[in-house]
Amino acid sequence: xxxxAPIKDMLFVLEELADMATIANLPGFxxxxxxxxxxxxxxxxxxxxxxxAPLNVEGDRNPSTWKxxxxxxxxxxxxxxRQFVEGGWQGVQHxxxxxxxxxxxxxxxxxxxxxxxSNLSFALCPLLTDGAIEALLTAGSETQKQLYVPxxxxxxxxxxxNLTEPxxxxxxxxxxxxxxxxxxxxxxxxxxxxxxxxxxHDMAGNIVHLVLARTPNAPEGVKGISLFIVPKFLVNExxxxxxxxxxxxxxxxxxxxxxxxxxxxxQFGDHGGATGYLIGxxxxxxxxxxxxxxxxxxxxxxxxxxVADRAYQKAVAYAKERVQSRPVDGSAKQAVAIIHxxxxxxxxxxxxxLTEGARALAYVAAAHSDIAxxxxxxxxxxxxQAIYEYLVPIVKGWxxxxxxxxxxxxxxxxxxxxxxxxxxxxxxxRDARILPIYEGTTAIQANDLVGRKTxxxxxxxxxxxxxxxxxxxxxxxxxxxxxxxxxxxxLEAGRQALAGVVDxxxxxxxxxxxxxxxxxxxYLELAGLVLSGWQMARAALVAHAKxxxxxxxYGAKIATAQFYAVHLLPHAVALQTSIVSGASAEGxxxxxxEQF
Amino acid sequence: xxxxAPIKDMLFVLEELADMATIANLPGFxxxxxxxxxxxxxxxxxxxxxxxAPLNVEGDRNPSTWKxxxxxxxxxxxxxxRQFVEGGWQGVQHxxxxxxxxxxxxxxxxxxxxxxxSNLSFALCPLLTDGAIEALLTAGSETQKQLYVPxxxxxxxxxxxNLTEPxxxxxxxxxxxxxxxxxxxxxxxxxxxxxxxxxxHDMAGNIVHLVLARTPNAPEGVKGISLFIVPKFLVNExxxxxxxxxxxxxxxxxxxxxxxxxxxxxQFGDHGGATGYLIGxxxxxxxxxxxxxxxxxxxxxxxxxxVADRAYQKAVAYAKERVQSRPVDGSAKQAVAIIHxxxxxxxxxxxxxLTEGARALAYVAAAHSDIAxxxxxxxxxxxxQAIYEYLVPIVKGWxxxxxxxxxxxxxxxxxxxxxxxxxxxxxxxRDARILPIYEGTTAIQANDLVGRKTxxxxxxxxxxxxxxxxxxxxxxxxxxxxxxxxxxxxLEAGRQALAGVVDxxxxxxxxxxxxxxxxxxxYLELAGLVLSGWQMARAALVAHAKxxxxxxxYGAKIATAQFYAVHLLPHAVALQTSIVSGASAEGxxxxxxEQF
Lengths: 596, 596
Description:
3 domains; two-stranded antiparallel sheet; AcylCoA_DH/ox_N (chains A, B)
């Protein structure tokens, strides 16, 4: 099997780090304990490993194709999508009242990781449908919910996000697509949207486009953007399909990776106007789109974890099989499998530590989201929502940036074979490269982290997390053991660095915005590095307590946490130095535009 | 123009950092001063920019093709190669007695950078020919030199390196290709070689393969390997071409990048044996091949600098043109070119600092090579040869690894457009990925750095370099200026980190080989980071002295050195921490093969 979901690792994170037991105690999740999680994960692993993973290479070699406005998915994809729909996989985390399974996000999260690890291109289609469902559930009218959501949850229809235009990428203030009211409550849309993932395809009966556009006389900038439902086929009141809407795919892109996933240019209104239905109120579109974007950003973070894990699995398999050179310590006279060479071990340990750390942080974030949505206690809901929102840009930015390094190391472990496309390691390297770009580049995530997530509350949520790290540090220091002392030392240094930077951001943002924003991506990187390292330390504490139950498994947890602490965390201090000095003349980037 | 060679920057490095004046004083280089350098660089820049750069995309879209054993180069390549030959570009650094131009390596080096920046795939063909020339000049008989070298220098023929076999990659001890003596002084070769760059093509009249093989009863391992000349067409005594030799290209690879460069599988002796001529003595093949490899390794390091610079140029052009979002400091009411946004500036500054630092280190290494080969003083020759040899694995490993980051940032600066192949940024990301793999992976370079270059002399050469850094530090500290204080502080911390690691390597290699070799790539990274940072600091000192002559140019040199010091050098301490702690239980990688 080309992908075996790491179920045991995932369940460890669910149970020991993300506190599955608390989630299962929330109202509505009474049946969602660790046994349910295990059953769901095993079934998901089987489907992803057997059905989707083998199609991954196929889709890379035979990208989706465009002809006369129609897009045909890669061979096997439509059939696999039918199996996905039949399995009810789209509905895992969505409410039962709209025919979803109503499971916690914490259980859906490993399923989504598996989906993406097995086939990033395929998984993008449900990923965007999830976003559309969340946006409709939050901002749609009751009629809109009844008409669209059950069909999206079943997988009969799929959803898309239409934001980007040629002149409006990161800057949505520049959106120009027009929406003209028709007097009957509907609108007609005119414009061009680009980079629309799964914007056209033949895997589902309808495509529900959620589209940002401007109504006549709307204010300039982001405060004049509204959100519309523009279905590919109009939907009759009884839910049956009506006529073809005036939205057409005029081309798809030729991309570096995720080639099976069609990236569409959509033309709205070339034949009289695309019929659109306003979601919520006019001029509040961006607000609603942010619901969808936050869901999608978290999921893209999982894509980073997923492709990193797949690359890791492949590299380990190769390293165990490829025989080359004698050991440097003279322990064998013959060439050995390269997994015994120190630098290969270093690369694999690095891949593993980065992947496990990012996974743990993402799953913990999912648990905060569950509490935020389901706790009976209003204050707890608000607190956990704030933590979740702080973590989303970090999960997105950190997990995707680290996936670039991990997939690159995956190629390196394969040596010359890694550069040959047939080997397959290169596909992960190509596929991963979009992750720090779409759904908001890392810089956009970092702006969000600085602006909405740190400055707005004066660093309160960040300081709350730092206090939690202190509790972990106290537990680490209770161990009289060199390994735990090393973990504590480096985690503490990382914690201090993060604290220093949060303080810097809060104090300097107004006086010195250019310095703070030049340090925003390094701040995000620092936060990802330290918060993931914290999760690894927590894992080590649990593993130590349980070590006699399964020495190989828990021993590996401790060793990976230790590697993370000693080999990755020391860079936290360097990041702090570089960020904080940005506010001084000698730390600033003293190059004019013309000097570049 | 898609590539404009940075002539002014290159001349700055030649003159101010690599001490062109000293090189021009060496016997035989009397005409090779800065004026000659400038004239050669300008002519090279014209040829590379006008002829080779436009073919780069063309070669990516239309890779070289194989049919019935024949390989056709990408469209336009054969004609461009004729122009390359007519321009005498193959001969720049080779001796006049074999019809080369006899210029210093220091002048050839920027020319080779330009060649690679304009077209990495194309440049690989001359790169390997250079290696074949060096090997023949050092180890070939006078007859062999007369027969092959002038035709290789003119570019009439090209050269290849045949090392790798399916079971023998990094581990050449496993080479199996057989060479059977025929009694007439010739041999017949039988075997399969893979990953042979430009191993077959239609751009030149003959291809001179240098091939590693075993003679009957040769000792096992690397001490039983001999080196042979196996020309594609046998060569008559008068230099005319004879019959086709029994070496055939059975396929070429489908690769992630450098697609125009054919990577051949060569079959030797399927039709009775490929005629080969022994170079030097039997069983000394690896020694001779190392001559070729060292030349090629240095040149691959330049490839890293080259592709990084090309990616930087493209990213800067896009950032100046793409308008998106208002400035964070409120300095404009409208969206501005993205080069004005702090994070874009950070990415571009990082790309620039990494590229300039690696370039300076490589050029300085080239100057050491010139002194090593041309000084009248035997002791100077030996000293500079030792420094050059210490620097080669660093130039190779560091420049190529940093090119991965720089080309990745190049994609990121382009946002979504970076992921679309037509944009062109993705090609550099794909092309660069081979650089840390071929001609010895980064781990192989790091083993060389630890074993032959640090342990063998007890760290003496490294300590000599550290003393030179001290001299630079003294000069920096003479400036009463915050910028220079910052550069001094971070360079000094980096210098201490490097000193600590050299000491660690020397003391621990015997007692704790696994720890030292697990830290070997980080040691190489640390050496590259600090030694390049040292060159940047030297550049800042010169720029400060000359600042009134050209404020924009010298100001940018100081700003780039400062960025390097504040944003890159602080990671030196983290690398030291991780390397040095590897020797303790809590720093080791405590995972068994089965635990990965």
